[in-house]
């Protein structure tokens, strides 16, 4: 293997010039690749090798692997360079910049942005690639939850149904700004959808506007099968595995508002005459603001509860889920903050939740008090 180093201002032929520090040329560009898996990595030496192997071990000649090390300060680059992939090391610039750098180094028509702490299951690529055609704007699949050591913890990050749809999802996004979708590693995007990321100046992550803009570009293929792993290890950007905190929750709200404003401009550009919902008038916004109140040590205002419940009724959830959430919102609004925080931690954990589970959280907290 050879690793080539260039001065930052003299790196030849790279569209994202000025970022690259080192390149591993061990992998080969395959012009026949239908799918590129772009792995961005920052200080994930414990996981990135397993992530790369989860793709390479499937031995798909129609899949290209591009790994971008986002200026890691641990052994990540050393581990990446040991694998037969096209690998690049850039100055630390955030996930978005790293993924765009990887996008500039593949011509594949479909892209899977795989987080360096997640992985694909054996056979996943065969299933995914077999579902892709020119009319597909996004394919999504469920992810099995695992812990830092790779042990399954039970349940999936997102429990999805199998379908192929477009217009129903367009109506859903126009009305609510969102639809049920997995995080970054559970999605494959057509290349033109990924190009929207170049317009993003308000976020450092990629699992944002392209998730919800995709239906406006083509069909969404949803697979109920769990084709990948989502690792919970305490350092996830999503906050899974950690107690909820007000700062992270407020950041999520801010991201949602800015993302929805961006999405609104895309809708106006592509579908003149159609308007996206006001982000502050959505179920997601009202729900998250209740979370911010609880995590901040405040009791949510009872007067906000009727509007939140009205938005909940319009959501495409089961009756049981709506009942559990309505009970949760009510309890968070009336219980002491410590019990409300226990309920919120249960609500935000990965996997499935239930009304019985909420009741157990209250019972456990009550028994632990003197």
Structure, described:
The protein has 370 residues and is an alpha/beta fold. Helix 8 runs antiparallel to helix 9, helix 10 runs antiparallel to helix 11 and helix 12 crosses helix 13. It has two domains: 3-232, Alpha-Beta Complex (Spore Coat Polysaccharide Biosynthesis Protein SpsA, Chain A); 246-368, no CATH class. The chain has helices at residues 48-56, 76-80, 95-103, 124-130, 167-176, 191-194, 209-213, 246-270, 283-295, 305-313, 319-334, 337-348, 355-368; strands at residues 3-5, 20-24, 35-41, 63-69, 86-90, 110-115, 119-120, 136-147, 152-156, 163-165, 187-190, 219-232. The protein contains 13 helices and twelve strands. Strands 1, 2, 3, 4, 5, 6, 7, 8, 9, 10, 11 and 12 form a twelve-stranded mixed sheet that branches. 37% of the residues lie in helices and 20% in strands. Mean pLDDT is 88; it is low at 1-17.
Write a short abstract of this structure.
By secondary structure, the protein is α/β, with parallel strands linked by helices. Helix content is 37%, strand content 20%.
Topology pattern, helix = H, strand = E: EEEHEHEHEEHEEEHEHHEHHHHHH
Could you say which overall geometry the principal axes of the C-alpha atoms support? globular
How many helices? The count is: 13
- Uncertain segments are 1-17
Mean pLDDT rating: 88
CATH homology group of the largest domain: Spore Coat Polysaccharide Biosynthesis Protein SpsA, Chain A
Question: Radius of gyration from the CA trace?
Answer: 21 Å
Helix content bin: 25-40%
Quote the beta fraction: 15-25%
The helix/strand class is alpha/beta
Q: Which CATH top level class of the largest domain fits?
A: Alpha Beta
According to CATH, the fold-level topology of the largest domain is Spore Coat Polysaccharide Biosynthesis Protein SpsA, Chain A
* CATH architecture group name of the largest domain: Alpha-Beta Complex
Strand elements, count: 12
């Amino acid at each position: 293997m050879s690793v080539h180093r260039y001065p930052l201002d003299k790196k030849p032929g790279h569209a994202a010039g000025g970022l690259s520090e080192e390149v591993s040329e061990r992998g080969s560009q395959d012009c026949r690749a239908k799918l590129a898996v772009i792995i961005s990595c920052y200080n994930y030496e414990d996981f990135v090798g397993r992530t790369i192997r989860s793709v390479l071990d499937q031995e798909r000649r129609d899949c290209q692997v591009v790994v971008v090390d986002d200026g890691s300060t641990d052994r990540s680059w050393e581990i990446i360079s040991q694998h037969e992939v096209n690998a690049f090391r850039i100055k630390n610039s955030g996930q978005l910049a790293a993924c765009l750098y990887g996008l500039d180094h593949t011509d594949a028509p479909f892209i899977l942005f795989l987080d360096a702490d997640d992985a694909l299951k054996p056979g996943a690529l065969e299933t995914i690639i077999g579902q892709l055609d020119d009319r597909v704007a996004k394919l999504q699949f469920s992810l099995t939850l695992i812990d830092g050591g790779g042990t399954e913890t039970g349940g999936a990050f997102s429990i999805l149904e199998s379908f192929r749809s477009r217009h129903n999802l367009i109506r859903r996004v126009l009305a609510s700004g969102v639809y049920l979708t997995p995080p970054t590693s559970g999605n494959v995007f057509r290349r033109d959808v990924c190009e929207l990321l170049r317009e993003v100046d308000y976020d450092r992550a990629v699992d944002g506007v392209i998730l919800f803009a995709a239906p406006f570009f083509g069909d969404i293929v949803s697979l109920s099968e769990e084709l990948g792993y989502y690792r919970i290890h305490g350092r996830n950007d999503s906050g899974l595995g950690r107690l909820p905190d007000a700062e992270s929750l407020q950041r999520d709200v801010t991201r949602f508002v800015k993302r929805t404003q961006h999405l609104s401009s895309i809708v106006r550009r592509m579908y003149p005459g159609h308007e996206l919902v006001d982000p502050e008038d959505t179920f997601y916004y009202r729900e998250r603001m209740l979370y911010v109140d609880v995590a901040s040590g405040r009791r949510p205002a009872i007067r906000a509860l009727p509007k939140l419940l009205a938005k909940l009724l319009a959501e495409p959830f089961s009756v049981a889920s709506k009942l559990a959430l309505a009970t949760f919102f009510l309890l968070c609004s009336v219980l002491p903050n410590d019990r409300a925080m226990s309920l919120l931690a249960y609500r935000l954990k990965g996997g499935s939740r239930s009304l019985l589970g909420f009741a157990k959280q209250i019972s456990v907290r009550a028994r632990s008090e003197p």
